[in-house]
Structures are given as C-alpha cells and as structure tokens.
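1st attempt posting a full record on here, be nice pls
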Amino acid sequence: MMAIQGRLRASGADVSWTRPEGMHLTLKFLGEVEEKMLPEMEAALSAAVRGRSPFSLKVSGIGTFPDLRRPRVIWIGLREHGNNLIRLQRGVEEEFNKIGFSSEGREFTPHITLGRIRSQRHVEKLLSLIEKERDVELNGFDASCVHLMQSQLRPTGAVYTERYSVELQG
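the predicted structure (as tokens):
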C-alpha cells in the first residue's frame, strides 16, 4: 500500500497521507466514549467475534469517497471470497447496538484509508493517477483478530492505542 501511496504522492496534491502504522479497517466507529463503558464494549466485541474463524482478505481497487466528482478520502478496497467480513461487521454492529451505540447510516464499504484531501491543489492530477491505479491488486492478508482501538487526534496525525483484542478462533 505504501507503493501506491508513493505513486499518488507524485501528483503533488494537498493530501494528509495515512502513516503505515495508522492503516486499518474500521468495522464500527464509536466516537467519543466514556472510560466506564470499556467493560461493556469488551463484552460486545467478544460476543460479536465468538465462533468466527480467521479469513483471508484481498487488497483490490482504489477510489475516493464520497465519489470522484467530490473527492475527500482516498481509499484502497478489501475483498474476500465468501461473506465472512460482512458477517463479522454486522455482528459487531448488532452487539454494539445492544449496549446503546446507534447503527451506521450507510452501507459498510470495506476499505483502508490512504489519505484525506485537504484542498483542491493538484486534485485533477491526483484523480488521473487514481484512475490509472483503479484496478490495482495487491497481496492480501489474513484477518485473525479484532481490536478495540482508541484514537487521539494530534497535530501530527491520529495516534491509535489498542484497548482490547479478540482472536478469531472459529
């Protein structure tokens, strides 16, 4: 993914690029949460993962949110054979609904954010490079655990701290 980022950086566009240690797949964004909720969130995540086996994901395709006419986020897609990831995400959604977190208002789109566009400077050149990379296929990886992460925004970018982790064991 870093090679793709490097090729896109050549556009000179005004983008806040995701650092390698910050790249992740979000199953559910929780927002601001009180520390006292941590035990309930750990139990919900454990329940969502229970009985699920590890599965493979393929890194495939690149695009922008919300779309190419109004690009704000540059993403690289994740695909799989079967619906393990979708079922896992729905399980997380259901378990967190039970403890008071509302459902996401849009359909889950498995992706990793490569960067966020800050201004329109050189966006046309960036979009041209994205179009060239549109059908990119990279090595995949195995999804074997789910983490409950805390993010803190800093001037240098988000800092992520693992608060809880659950292995996919089937």
